[in-house]
Design a protein that fits this description.
Structural class: alpha+beta
Distance between the termini: 103 Å
Shape: extended
Strand order of the largest sheet: 4-5-6-7-8
Radius of gyration: 34 Å
């Protein structure tokens, strides 16, 4: 019996030790984590449960808080700027030029509300995604009689018009999760939308939803987990902190206002107090004390006057606010300097390093979210609408649609941090065959073919006008030849 008992003890000893001392601190029941009991809900359960409340609070913080408002402006300015522009990759040069020219004319007419152009819609959609977590863009076909370059317009739809409360199980394995209908394998097939914003005071569309096929909608949001169909505001992790900081900053402002005033508090004052003798009263009947420099005031026995002297927070206010705003900037994915405009603690090297890291993140967002979810679907619908209107050879499109849909989207070029050094680096990279001319031009946000055509046109115009100007290539070749000749002569000597 004792042998069997020992064997059992040896078998359960590892289990007992694990239960007594978990392998991970976060999995223990220590004092530090005892009250930390998070749920394990799916991402759609979290979004459906808290999405509406998060959107309301996010919009409120951005409306009231200057740091939040500036964060949105900085994010949109860097993500979109003047616009992410298309460059057709159709193999036929004339077709390529025709498509780009047609798209350029259409950009001024594409907004269904008539407020901006296509690149302005990019900014609005990106702003809505930052503020509300997502943006919806409906493709609205138009009649030929509308007189548009291409019979297609884009309509922005706020996320509130796709109710997160709509969750149903449909026949055939179809489901509606937070207003998004999916097929049995999880593909989005439709969106259920209110006709008008539910919070509009003039809402006449009611609260009945309309089923809109998914191929008629571009849904812009940043997916963070598998199985996510709705977005969450970018302010989610910092909106409480921003709200608290605004209250703290307001309290500090009031404290300084009080400290700047000479405030008196009279203990047990009565109407016969000589301090207020022969003085006026305010609208509430409270005597107004008249104290002049050099005044000598006699108080009755037992009466005292106390002067308000609020305590100072010392020099920690600025440093504390700076630290908290750095946390906010980290949560929003932007730099502290972009959030606050404070450049007092940066130098060229630190600023450049921060910007390089930020630009890497922004480029990932541009290509993985904006281009993939918004720009590419818009180009596809534009091509189809143009073909339907007879502006594109529909037979050629039907035979092989890929050349027509193949397009490169180019964000606005980043401004030079140090123009002289950066341009010199590009020249060196080209000379060492590490970069091509086209790659360098594309890095500036321009189309290489357009640039080369402009250069050729300028050179031809100069020749026609009798202007003799040595080309860059010829000058560089002459310099290299002179340099080589000098080296050879030096070697011969």
């Amino acid at each position: 019996m004792s042998l069997a008992r020992n064997l059992v003890r040896r078998a359960i000893a590892p289990i007992v030790r694990w239960a007594a001392t978990p392998a991970y601190d976060a999995a223990s029941q220590s004092r530090r984590v005892r009250g930390w009991e998070p749920g394990n809900d799916s991402v759609m359960a979290l979004v459906a449960g808290a999405g509406d409340d998060l959107r309301r609070k996010s919009r409120d913080v951005i409306r009231r808080n200057p740091w939040a408002g500036n964060a949105v402006d900085a994010f949109v300015a860097n993500a979109i700027g003047t616009g992410i522009t298309p460059a057709s990759k159709h193999p036929d040069r004339e077709t390529r030029k025709m498509l780009e020219s047609l798209f350029l004319r259409w950009t001024d007419e594409c907004d269904a509300a008539g407020l901006t152009d296509f690149y302005g819609l990019q900014s609005l959609a990106c702003r809505e995604m930052f503020e509300a977590g997502e943006a919806f863009v409906r493709f609205r076909p138009r009649r030929a009689s509308d007189g548009l370059t291409v019979p297609l317009q884009l309509q922005l739809v706020e996320s509130e018009q796709v109710p997160t409360s709509k969750n149903e199980s449909l026949a055939g394995g179809f489901k509606i999760r937070a207003g998004v209908e999916t097929d049995p394998i999880g593909r989005r097939v439709a969106y259920h939308m209110y006709r008008e914003h539910p919070g509009d005071i003039l809402n006449t569309g009611g609260f009945e939803t309309t089923r809109v096929p998914a191929d008629q909608v571009a849904h812009l949001f940043r997916p963070l987990r598998f199985g996510q169909y709705r977005g969450q505001p970018w302010m989610t992790s910092v909106m409480v902190l921003l709200n608290d900081l605004e209250k703290y900053d307001g309290a500090e402002l009031i404290r300084k206002q009080i400290a700047a005033m000479m405030a008196f508090f009279i203990e047990d004052a009565d109407p016969a107090n000589p301090l207020f003798a022969n003085e006026d009263e305010d609208d509430d009947g409270v005597p107004i004390a008249g104290i002049e420099p050099g005044s000598v005031i006699t108080l009755p026995n037992g009466k005292t006057v106390k002067i308000s002297e609020p305590t100072d927070v010392g020099g920690m206010y600025v440093e504390y606010m700076r630290l908290q705003l750095r946390k906010v900037a980290a949560g929003l994915g932007i730099t502290y300097e972009q959030l606050t405009g404070d450049m007092t603690q940066v130098n060229f090297s630190s600023l450049r390093s921060a910007l390089l890291e930020y630009r890497r993140r922004m480029e990932a967002f541009q290509h993985q979210v904006v281009v993939f979810q918004l720009c590419r679907p818009v180009w596809r619908e534009f091509i189809l609408a143009a073909a339907t209107a007879g502006l594109i050879d529909i037979d050629a499109l039907a035979a092989d649609p890929r050349p027509f849909f193949d397009v490169e989207w180019r964000p606005q070029a980043w401004p030079w941090v140090d123009p002289l050094k950066d341009i010199a680096a590009e020249i060196t990279a080209r000379k060492e065959l590490l970069k091509s001319d086209s790659e360098i031009i594309r890095s500036t946000g321009r189309d290489p073919e357009t640039v080369f055509e402009e250069i050729a046109a300028d050179q031809q115009r100069q020749r026609d006008l009798g202007i003799e100007k040595e080309s860059h290539t010829a000058s560089a070749t002459a310099q290299d030849a002179n340099s080589n000749g000098s080296d050879q002569n030096a070697g011969n000597q």
